[in-house]
Structures are given as structure tokens and as C-alpha cells.
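Hi U.,

Before I forget, here's the chain from the pilot set. I'm dumping it here mostly so it's searchable later in email.
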Amino acid sequence: MRVIHEMKFVARLASGVDEWSCPTCGRRVTLRRLPEPELTVLDPGDDSAVHVGVIEPDAHQAAATAEKYGLGPVQSVPRPPSPSSPPAPSPSAPDAADRRWLAEIGIDWDGDAAA
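Structure:
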């Protein structure tokens, strides 16, 4: 029996495609709907797992969907902890080097002046 992971709907992007993510293995895809369907894998995650997804899923619905296609019970596999790394700087607060570069191109980050 294959492991089944439940994909979660993330958002509809400006391009009109839907982004889906698997919280179990990290798989991320974009899906364009009919009339021109297209699937783009952004991060493969666990390629050996079967991925199912429904909009606004609940555990019962996911299990029923998996059973309907003969895939067996949905199994939740915990993800390993992320490697520890220093937190990334906030994108709204550029560091000193970025501020110098912004000033060189005519942008005063802290004031109202802009090129």
C-alpha cells in the first residue's frame, strides 16, 4: 500500500494558477485548471507518495477521497526538524549595505525622497 499525503490549497496566484502544498513532505505544485490544464512541480517533496487534495478538506473527506481511488488510509508522517539557522532579516528593514546601495540609486529608504 502506498503512503498518501494530503495537499493543502495555498492560494490562487495572479497568473490564475492555484498553488498547492503538502505539509507532510514539502511538495509544492501549481495547477492551472481547464480549459488548458497544466501542472508545474515547484518542489518535488516525496515522489513516492500519492498526493490528494480537495478545497476546504477535512479528515473524513480526505479519507473518503483516498478510499474512492483505492489508495488506502491517509497517513501523516512528521517532517524532520529544520536545520537551525539564524533568522533571516526582515524584508522591510534593509541592512546598512542595502541602504547605501538604495541611496546610490536615488532612494532614501527612511525618508520621502525617491528617484
